[in-house]
Specification:
Blueprint lengths: L2 E13 L5 E8 L3 E7 L1 H4 L3 E6 L9 H7 L7 E6 L11 E2 L9 E7 L2 E5 L1 H5 L37 E4 L2 E13 L4 E5 L9 E6 L7
Antiparallel strand pairs: 1-2, 1-12, 2-11, 3-4, 3-6, 4-5, 7-10, 7-12, 8-9, 10-11
Length: about 210
C-alpha cells in the first residue's frame, strides 16, 4: 500500500479546466528518509520508520543520536507498517510523487482540540425550555441518571467533556495536484487537524468514489 507522512499547511482553492473553484488542503511532503527498517525476523513485523522535520542535536541524548547515525536528527519519527519486506534501505527517502493526480487517499490526523465543552455543543443537544421560569436550563443536558431503578448513570452516557484532540480519518479524498518541485500535495476538501499537524496519507482502502 502506498503511504507517506506530510505536514498540513492549510487550505486554498484551485480552478479546474471549466473554471470551477475547488477547495483543497495543501500538504507539504518533503522527502522523508527511512531511519530504520524493521523485519519480521528481528522485530516480529515488517515496517519502516521514517523521520519528518528537523531538530537541534542538542535536544537529543547520545542513544537517540546513535539511532539516527549520520542522518540529521528528526523532530518526528513515525512507522509505516508493511505487508511484505521493504525494498528500501536506511537513508533512502519517500517523496511526494508516490501519488499522482486522480488517486484517492485516506488521510489520518489529530483533530483540533476544543477543550471542555457542554452537551449542547459536544453532542448537539437541543437544550431545555426557557418558559415557566426555566431560564437557566437553556443549555442544560437534562437528567443523566434514572429513577429508583437502576439508580445509576450508564456507561457511555452523552455528557459534557473534552471535545476534539482525537485520531480522525477522512476517507476517499481526491488528489487534485502533485507539485514535486515544491514538495506539495493538494487534496480535495478538508482534513483533520490544525496547520503544521502531522498527517498520514495512504492509498484509499475503499477504491474509487462512485
Amino acid at each position: 500500500m502506498r503511504q507517506l507522512y506530510g505536514i498540513k499547511l492549510g487550505m486554498a482553492r484551485v480552478f479546474d479546466e471549466s473554471g470551477e473553484a475547488i477547495g483543497v488542503t495543501v500538504v507539504e511532503v518533503k522527502p522523508t528518509p527511512v531511519v530504520q527498517v524493521k523485519t519480521k525476523a528481528k522485530d516480529g513485523y515488517e515496517a519502516i520508520q521514517v523521520g519528518l522535520g528537523e531538530k537541534r542535536k542538542s535536544l537529543f541524548n547520545k542513544p537517540q543520536l546513535g539511532h539516527f547515525g549520520d542522518m540529521t536528527p528528526m523532530r518526528y519519527l513515525r512507522e509505516l507498517r508493511l505487508d511484505a519486506p521493504s525494498t528500501l534501505q536506511k537513508g533512502e527517502a519517500l517523496t511526494v510523487d508516490t501519488f499522482k493526480v486522480g488517486d484517492h487517499v485516506d488521510v489520518t490526523g489529530i483533530s483540533k482540540g476544543l477543550g471542555f465543552q457542554g452537551a449542547v455543543r459536544r453532542h448537539n443537544f437541543g437544550g431545555g425550555p426557557v418558559s415557566h421560569g426555566q431560564s437557566d436550563r437553556t443549555r442544560a443536558p437534562g437528567s443523566v441518571g434514572a429513577s429508583s431503578y437502576p439508580s445509576r448513570t450508564f456507561r457511555g452516557q452523552r455528557m459534557a467533556g473534552r471535545m476534539g484532540n482525537a485520531r480522525v480519518t477522512v476517507q476517499n479524498l481526491d488528489v487534485v495536484a502533485v507539485r514535486p518541485e515544491d514538495n506539495l500535495l493538494l487534496l480535495r476538501g478538508a482534513v483533520p487537524g490544525k496547520p503544521n499537524g502531522v498527517l498520514l496519507i495512504r492509498e484509499s482502502i475503499k477504491g474509487v468514489r462512485k
